[in-house]
């Protein structure tokens, strides 16, 4: 480097940063502080927030609807992440061993490109109790019509399945990209030694994919905890709160009952969960790049 | 043998992926009155375009009603245009502004650089729902409800991820070209516009496409801020359409026609930039 004396780009840097700093201050920094403030106030969006101390949090801890929504969210996350990860691993491993086709990858990505609202509508129609294609198929097979989205026990698994359909392809492509980093000669060697596909998957693919898999899992978890669109379209928290997830609970408190303070307290709670997950993600991000790069 | 088994499983997965889209289009082409009787077979018996016509507001109210509509005004051509404008504004400006900041954080020297960057990155840990409520109040207080300005405001200037992503990229650019440009008397702006930006077309397009896709899918924020007919986005319009449709007997043919229209632009995107999009889905940091 020719210029050994310290360069100072202070003035230029200011112009480079103005838009981003303004956006950050107004739509990230300021609202984060305001959100924390709302959570200790009584605020209905009319008038000004009135400080009430820890009342909202106290109410939250004793609100059975809140705990139920937390439980429902965790139930969804378990169902969705479980099915989505297994399916994505299967698809990724199949692609990895079979083909490098871009057309196939693009096809599998299609459901991810579609708005969740469209996905919700589409499956609401396919799963419709009276006219839906799936029930038409089941009736033909002699299994009576099933109320996938109206039965309290089935509604959450159905929504988890819908979102698995929407996101498994995308997840599979992320895992597939990770698998491409695994040296091909490992498989060739194992093949010569007589290892089968399942054995190779267990002994080569899975262990070497671990950093990428961990990262993909955490990112999916963060997304899963924030499920909203599909539920807002299909069940709106029903039947009887069986699909009222945390995000929907917050939305209802804020925009149906105008309990901004109370909703913010619940949002703080969700933020804490997601904050921990994101911190883990950033750790893994550092770990995975140093491992594989 | 093993390959045949593998391809069979893959074929089943592709059918499950694609069939729902086919059924969506198929329903959209079916006359509303036939839904009960004509529900098997890959094609409708009497295909019709009336459902598309009525959600594009190309029919009279009476015609739309006769074809199964609720009679409410629906114009998906307009909603799609709104969505395209929304996505275009966000993708173009967010990418540009974040590239500028990413470049400054990667290359310029100024006091407090790393601290400011760390603060911005820490916002990755704040989930959208937490800032959504105060941002809604802010946009409402500014009188920007039902305006495009209010809808794009929180994301048009930056997202922490885009800043992070582009800074990482600029760090990986070789320095010698820039050093040569400095010797030629270029300032930071000249280098950024004439050298750094043209060299980063790939990552810029990647982040632009990804931003477009996410903006196309946006629902909750535009629902809160842009429910009015004038600036209504496709996703919000689909939600409103479903609400207007009777609960007991939803207007499925119309809803599926509208759903199909909401898929067309992203399907086109996939056809034109699918290869780049597919290749950009890579967490391992090689590109």
From TrEMBL, chain A:
CDD domains: TM_PBP2 (cd06261). Keywords: Cell membrane, Membrane, Transmembrane, Transmembrane helix, Transport. Its main location: membrane. It is found in: Cell membrane. PROSITE patterns: ABC_TM1 (PS50928). Pfam families: BPD_transp_1. It is a multi-pass membrane protein. This is Sugar ABC transporter permease.
TrEMBL record, chain B:
The keyword Phosphoprotein does not apply. It comes from the Bacteria. It comes from Paractinoplanes pyxinae. The chain crosses the membrane at residues 7-25, 79-103, 115-138, 144-166, 252-273. Residues 80-274 form the ABC transmembrane type-1 domain. Keywords: Cell membrane, Membrane, Transmembrane, Transmembrane helix, Transport. This is Carbohydrate ABC transporter permease. It is found in: Cell membrane. The keyword Glycosyltransferase does not apply. Belongs to the binding-protein-dependent transport system permease family. It is a multi-pass membrane protein.
């Amino acid at each position: 480097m020719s210029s050994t004396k310290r360069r100072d780009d202070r003035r230029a840097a200011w112009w480079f940063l103005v838009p981003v700093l303004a956006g950050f201050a107004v739509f990230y920094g300021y609202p984060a502080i305001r959100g924390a403030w709302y959570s200790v106030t009584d605020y209905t969006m009319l008038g000004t927030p009135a400080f009430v101390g820890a009342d909202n949090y106290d109410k939250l801890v004793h609100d059975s609807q809140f705990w139920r929504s937390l439980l429902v969210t965790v139930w969804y996350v378990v169902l969705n992440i479980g099915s989505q990860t297994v399916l994505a691993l299967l698809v990724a491993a199949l692609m990895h061993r079979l083909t490098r086709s871009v057309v196939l990858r693009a096809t599998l990505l299609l459901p991810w490109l579609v708005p969740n609202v469209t996905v919700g509508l589409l499956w609401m129609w396919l799963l419709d109790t009276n006219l839906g294609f799936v029930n038409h198929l089941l009736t033909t097979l002699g299994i009576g019509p099933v109320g996938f989205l109206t039965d309290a026990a089935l509604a959450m698994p159905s929504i988890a399945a819908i979102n698995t359909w929407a996101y498994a392809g995308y997840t599979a492509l992320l895992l597939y990209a990770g698998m491409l980093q695994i040296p091909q000669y490992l498989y060739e060697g194992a093949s010569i030694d007589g290892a089968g596909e399942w054995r190779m998957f267990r002994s080569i693919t899975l262990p070497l994919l671990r950093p990428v898999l961990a990262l993909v899992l955490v990112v999916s978890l963060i997304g899963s905890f924030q499920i909203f669109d599909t539920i807002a379209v299909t069940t709106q928290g029903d039947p009887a709160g069986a699909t009222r997830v945390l995000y929907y609970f917050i939305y209802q408190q804020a925009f149906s009952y105008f309990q901004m303070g109370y909703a913010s307290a619940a949002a703080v709670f969700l933020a804490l969960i997601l904050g921990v997950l994101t911190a883990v993600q950033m750790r893994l991000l550092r770990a995975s790049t140093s491992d594989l790069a | 043998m093993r390959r045949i088994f593998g391809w069979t499983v893959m074929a089943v997965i592709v059918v499950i992926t694609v069939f729902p889209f086919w059924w969506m289009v198929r329903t959209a082409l079916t006359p509303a009155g036939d839904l009960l009787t004509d529900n098997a077979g890959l094609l409708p018996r009497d295909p019709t375009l009336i459902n598309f016509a009525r959600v594009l507001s190309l029919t009279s109210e009476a015609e739309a009603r006769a074809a199964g509509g609720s009679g409410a005004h629906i114009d998906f051509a307009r909603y799609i245009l709104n969505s395209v404008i929304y996505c275009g504004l966000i993708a173009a400006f967010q990418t540009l502004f974040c590239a500028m900041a990413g470049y400054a954080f990667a290359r310029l020297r100024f006091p407090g650089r790393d601290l400011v960057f760390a603060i911005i990155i820490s916002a990755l840990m704040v989930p959208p729902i937490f800032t959504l409520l105060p941002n809604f109040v802010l946009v409402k207080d500014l009188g920007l409800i039902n305006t495009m300005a209010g809808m794009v405001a929180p994301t048009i200037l930056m997202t922490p991820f885009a800043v992070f992503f582009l800074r990482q990229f600029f760090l990986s650019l070789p320095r010698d070209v820039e050093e040569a440009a400095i010797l030629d008397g270029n300032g930071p702006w000249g280098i950024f516009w004439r050298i750094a930006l043209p060299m980063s077309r790939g990552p810029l397009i990647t982040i632009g496409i990804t931003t477009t896709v996410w903006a196309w899918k946006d629902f909750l924020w535009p629902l809160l801020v842009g429910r009015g007919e004038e600036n209504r986005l496709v996703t919000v319009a689909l939600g409103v359409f479903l609400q207007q449709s009777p609960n007991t007997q939803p207007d499925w043919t119309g809803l599926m026609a509208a759903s199909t229209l909401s898929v067309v632009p992203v399907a086109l995107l996939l056809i034109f930039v699918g290869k780049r999009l597919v290749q950009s889905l890579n967490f391992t940091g090689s590109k």
